[in-house]
Amino acid sequence: MKNLLVNVLVFAVLISVSAGCSGKKGSSGKKNNIPQQIQKLQSASAVDRATKLPPLAVRLAEETKDIPGAKRVMEDAMKACAEIEAPADKCEGYSKVAECYGKLNEKSNAKRALKQAKEAIGQLPEGTDPETLISLYAKVAKAQASMNELQDAEETLMNALAEVEKIELPGSRIRPLSDVFTVFCEIKAAEGQKKTLEVIHKLVDEVEDKGLKSGYLARTAAIQFQTDLMEAGEKTFAEAEKYADEIESLGQRALAYCELVEVAISAKLKEVAARVLDKANKDGEKEMDDTLRTLAREKVADLKKKVN
């Protein structure tokens, strides 16, 4: 029961993070708020300035056409990177700067920042955990992709994928795998997607819990949908639903269905969402455990508002 609740919460966080990385603008991002957000960050930590100023610079250029202002913000972000001491944070900062310079078509500056990001990886202490290394590789790859250096990005991601096998606990592999798979999908690297899916399916085979199997595949489908790989996403979604169907506990099965409904809603698959939500509602109501039944009811009620 406790493991299930943790899994539901982790899934919600991963879906939220994936959605935030999809590049789609939210309704809260008003043009006149950009200078205020930039100003507010001036008193923030070097890491926050390095990672949060660059996306605002891109928005400043794209939404307000203030190119000189965007360049000044990017220069501030570069200076912030130089203030960072920890190699991992430094790599993250320079990677974000390089990525956004790439989006601004400032290739020479992007290359300069990317060089610093790679050097920071080389400065990581011996014994750095694979999860950290994989995350950093994925960030570097995103920067390379923004500069249209797709082959280099794929090579970087393959290096990240090789690190996954070093993670001992199967459950700890899904988040870094999701990071790598997201970038492979964003750059439409078919071979990389295929190899990452093979690793994900190997992970699914290693775990016995049908809820975890369904959850891992649901997260994978969410990434595919968010990167416009709809046909592949539908196939993965069907696999996830199949495992959800095999969960013995009615309440746990209902919650697994709710995870899938969240994915379908994000992908704007309303008919699929409604169909799976009906299954969640029926199974949840049959659950004998009061806690599970209440949790399922609450999730279903919340999702009904989003589907209708």
Could you explain how this protein is built, in words?
- By secondary structure, the chain is mainly α.
- Helices cover 79% and strands 0% of the residues.
- The protein contains 15 helices and no strands.
- The longest helix has 19 residues, at 2-20.
- The model is unreliable at 1-6 and 8-29 (pLDDT under 50).
User: In which range does the helix fraction lie?
Assistant: over 70%
What low-confidence regions span 5 or more consecutive residues with pLDDT below 50? Answer: 1-6, 8-29
Mean pLDDT equals 90
Oligomer: single chain
Largest sheet: none
Terminal CA distance reads 30 Å
- Taken as a percent bin, the fraction of beta residues is under 5%
Order of helices and strands: HHHHHHHHHHHHHHH
How many β-strand runs? 0
Which descriptor suits the 3D outline? globular
Radius of gyration: 21 Å
Compute the number of helices: 15
Counting helices, strands and paired strands, the structural category is: mainly alpha
